[in-house]
Amino acid sequence: MSEHQEPVTRGLHGTGAVAFSTRGEYGVRFMVALARMDHGEPVSLTDIAEAEDLPRAYLEQIVGSLRDVGIIDSARGAHGGYRLARPANEVRMGDVLRALEGPIVPMACIEGDGSACSKTGSCSVVQLWSRVRDSVSEALDSFTLADLAVPGAPITLKQK
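Structure (tokenized):
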């Protein structure tokens, strides 16, 4: 390796060129579990956390973003919990991740008006980053929650 090359490191969250955070990962797992468990009645956050082995406190932070964009509904009370706000086949995974992570962009310069970059208008690689953004968005939007919730055995509530 020459003295000008950076070492290549591989690991978990946030180390790749296009990576999603734990918030995105847990949010997708939450949504798949909810879709599998939602039979018209609200599902408790505790039941989903236990079924997916996810921290309940972390899920409490995630559900607000999903509720704010109309992906899930909540009900209070003894039989309260969460349910899908629309059918699983109408929930695009890109929408779920955008609600949790924000805009899907590989470089800040292609988000919004481009004001984050001093090369706006003269950048020679903006086409590359735009295509990466579009391809990732297209891939995520090609999956619905129903696509992910159907495979495998349905999640069932643990006996108490």
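Residues 22-37 form the longest helix (16 residues). Residues 22-102+144-149 form a domain with the Arc Repressor Mutant, subunit A fold (CATH 1.10.10.10).
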